[in-house]
Amino acid sequence: MDIEVKIRGLMMDPNSGTPIIILKDVHSETILPIWVGAYEANAIALEIEKMASQRPMTHDLLRNMIVQMGVRVERVVVTELRDNTFFAVIEMRASDGEALMLDARPSDAIALALRADCPIFVNEEVIRASRNTLSGSEEDATTIRGEEEEWPDVIGEAGDLPM
Questions:
Q1: What's the domain range around 14?
Q2: pTM over 0.85
């Protein structure tokens, strides 16, 4: 079963300095942290803040191509957690009704979902598997759940990101 989620926040992992997207079940307090790259996190943060870049970024280009081809993004789903790597699909529908599915990294799928204004889902098994694989103590997990810092305050300007 797929569970609809919303982005609760973006933060930095205090131990590794890696960005984390915090997804929260819309019907419960269940959360799912997904570690992502800095550039992908920046693309998500810019869209959350509705900050427009002077030129289309990669996810904007992808959305524009999809729209120009007469395809609609229906939803994105985080489908699997395998060897500590999350997998996702982008579910689309062509103008003739044909269903299309594209394999994607969750960070890219989420960045596109924000731009296409479509829902984000996580397979229930992924949440279950994530609970079993989160490293650290329960106290560490609680710290992640309780993090209130907003991503744009953490990430700084796009030019500040390491290359």
A1: 2-150
A2: no
pLDDT 10s digits, 8-60: 999 999 999 999 999 999 999 999 999 999 999 999 999 999 998 889 899 99
Q: Give the Cα separation of 12 and 37 in Å (integer).
A: 11
Q: What total number of domains does the chain contain?
A: 1
Distance CA 61, CA 68 (A): 10
CA distance 34 to 8: 12
Summary mean pLDDT of the chain: 84
Q: Is residue 142 assigned to a domain?
A: yes
Contacts of 91 (CB under 8 A, 6+ apart): 73, 74, 75, 76, 77, 99, 100, 101
* CATH code of 107's domain: 3.10.690.10
